[in-house]
Amino acid sequence: MATSTRERRPSTGAPISELQGPVGPAGVTRPKHKRTFTGFGAGEIKSVEASIPEPQREAWKKYTAKGFETKEDFEKEVVRHVETTLARSMFNCDETAAYAAASLAFRDKLITAWNRTQQRQTFADGKRVYYLSLEFLMGRALDNAMLNVGLKNVAKEGLSDLGFRIEDIINQEHDAALGNGGLGRLAACFLDSLASLSYPAWGYGLRYRYGIFKQEIVDGYQVEVPDYWLDFNPWEFPRHDIVVDIQFFGHVRKYQDEQGVSKTVWEGGEIVKAVAYDVPIPGYDTPATNNLRLWSSKAASGEFDFQKFNSGDYESSVADQQRAETISAVLYPNDNLDRGKELRLKQQYFWVAASLYDIVRRFKKSKRAWKEFPEQVAIQLNDTHPTLAIVELQRVLVDLEGLEWDEAWGIVTKTFGYTNHTVLPEALEKWSVPLFQNLLPRHLQIIYEINLFFLQTVERKFPGERDLLGRVSIIEESQPKMVRMAFLAIVGSHKVNGVAELHSDLIKTTIFKDFVKIFGPDKFTNVTNGITPRRWLHQANPRLSELIASKLGGYDFLKDLTLLSKLEAFADDKTFKKEWQEIKYANKVRLAKHIKTTTDVTVNPSALFDIQVKRIHEYKRQQMNIFGVIHRYLTIKAMSPEKRKKLAPRV
Question: What is the pTM of this model?
Answer without folding.
Answer: 0.90
